[in-house]
Amino acid sequence: MSALPAVVQLGESVMVGRSVTGGEDSVLAPTGQREFVLVVTADQARLIPAEATVEITYEDHTWDAVIASTAQDEYGSTTFTLSAPDGSEVCSEQCSVLPNDPQVTLRSQVVIVPRVEGTTVPAAAVHTRADGSAYVVTDSGEMDVTVAGSGQGIVVVEGVQPGTRVQVTGDQGSGTAPQQPAPQQEQQPAPGDGAGSPQDG
Questions:
Q1: In terms of domains, do 173 and 128 share one?
Q2: DSSP assignment, residue 199?
Q3: Across-strand partners of 122?
Q4: Given the DSSP bridges, would you call strands 185-189 and 141-151 parallel, antiparallel or unpaired?
Q5: How far apart are CA 99 and CA 150, in angstroms?
C-alpha cells in the first residue's frame, strides 16, 4: 500500500452530474513496487553494454541499478528495466523519500567503465615478467603489484603504498635511473578505456 500522503486521482467514470451505479474505478492511487526504467534512443542503446551499471540520483540519495530486461518499441526507442544488483527494488528501503506521483523523472548516469581506486604510478614504472606477473622497482628492489586499471599513461596498482619511490626509466642495475614517488590514491578508469565513460540518461 502506498505511503501517505499520496497523490490520488478520480477515475474517468466520475464526473460532475454523472450518476454512478457502483463498481466503477472512482479513486486511483499508485500502489505496489516502483518500476525503474531507462528510455534511450537506438543509437544510445548500442553504446550501453548489458553489464553496465546505472547510478540513479534523487536529491542526496544515490542508488546503483543494473539492467534486468530490455524492450524496443515501434518507434525505435529502447527501454531498459532496472533493478538493484540483488534483483530487488532499486530504491530498496528508501523508496519513501520519492514523491508519490504516478511517474517521477530522476537523473541517471550510465557507468560503462567501472571506476577503480588505488595508488597510481607512471605506466613506464610497471614491468611484466615472463609469467605475466607485474612489478615495480623501488629503493628496496622489485616489488610485486597487481594492476587494477590504466589510462592516459597512468596505472592503478595494488601492493604499493602512496609515497613509495618507483623507478621510471633506465636500467635498474645501474643505480642512476631517475625515480618518482608514487602519487596519492586516485580514481582511474578500468583497463580498456583511457577515460571514464559515463553517459547521462
A1: yes
A2: E
A3: 154
A4: unpaired
A5: 41
* Domain termination residue (choose one: 49, 78, 111): 111
Task: Pick the last residue of a domain from 111, 145, 169.
Answer: 111
Q: Containing domain of residue 38, as a range? A: 32-111
In which residue are the cell numbers 551499471 written?
A: 53
Q: Which amino acid is at 183?
A: P
Distance, in Å, from the CA atom of 74 to the CA atom of 166, rounded to the nearest integer, reads 57
pLDDT along the chain (201 residues), means of 10: 55 64 60 82 89 90 92 90 91 82 85 80 91 91 89 86 84 48 54 44 48
Kindly state the cell numbers that stand for 95.
523508496
**What is the C-alpha to C-alpha distance for residues 163 and 124, in angstroms, rounded to an integer?**
17
Q: Are residues 177 and 145 in the same domain?
A: yes
Residue 41 has which C-alpha cell? 534512443
Distance between CA atoms of residues 89 and 99, nearest Å = 16
Lookup result for grid cell 605506466 = 123
